[in-house]
Amino acid sequence: MMMTEIEINDIKQLVAEINSLENHYIYRGQANAEWKLCSALERIIGDYWDAEKVKYFEDFSLKSFKPKFHLYNVENYTPSSKLSWLATMQHYGIPTRLLDFSESPYVALYFALESFNYSANNHLALYAINYRSVLDNSIKFITEQDTNFTKKRTEIYGEQDDVFDKFIDPFSHNIIWITEPTLLNTRIDRQAGCFLLSGNRSKKIEEILFSELYKETKIFKFVIPSSLAGGIFALLRKINLTSKQLYGDLDGLARSIRMTMQVYANVNPPENDE
What we know:
4-stranded mixed β-sheet; 3-stranded antiparallel β-sheet
C-alpha cells in the first residue's frame, strides 16, 4: 500500500491537490486526522472484534430493520441486496461494517466539518483512494480463488452487490470491496455515496487495505489544520454544498443551521450573512 500524507497549508493548495487527482478516486473526510479508517461497527466492537460477533450484530440489525422498513419508508425505494440493506441502515445511523466514501471530495470535506469539534484544535483529514486499483486487485484475487468467476472490473459495474453476495461474503475473502448500491435512496444519491468494506468479517478494514495485496494502490491523506475549517465552510457554500442540498429534508435544514452556528461561533461572520 502506498499512502502519501500531505500537509495542507491553505485552501488554494487543498483545491489544487484535489484537482490534480484523476477521476477514479473516492474520498472520505474525517474530523480528526488521528482517527483510523474504520467502520461504525468496528468502533462499537473495538478490541472484541471477531467474525462470530460481527455476524451476530449484522444479522440482528437486518432482522430488526427489514420487517419494519415499510412502516417508515416514505420513498419509492426498497433495498434489493444485502449491501443495499446495510447501506440504507448505515444512512439512518445503524452501525454496520460499511465505511462511507463519496465520489466527490467536497462532499467528503462537508462530512469532516459536520462532526468537527472546533474547540479541540485538532487537524482534519481527507482521504483519497484509487478505487480502480482496489477493485482490480480484489477481482484478481477472486479470480485466482474461484474459477467460476471470470469477469473484469469494467464488467461488474451495477453488479457489485451480486458479486459480493455470491463470490465474496460466503467465503470471507481477504479483500476490500467497493460498491455503490444498485438501488439508491435519495440521501445516498445526493451525497454521491459509495461504500468500502472488508470481505472477511474477522478482519478490520485497515488490516486488509494496508496488506500486501494493495501495496501498489495509491492512497492520499491530506492533513488539514483546524485553522482552515472556516475557509472550507466558505468554499463549500460558494458551490452550494450544504446540509440542505445533501439531505434534502428538514433534518438537512437543521443540520445546515447548526453547522453555520458552529463555524461562526469560532470565526467572525461576514456582514449581512444569513
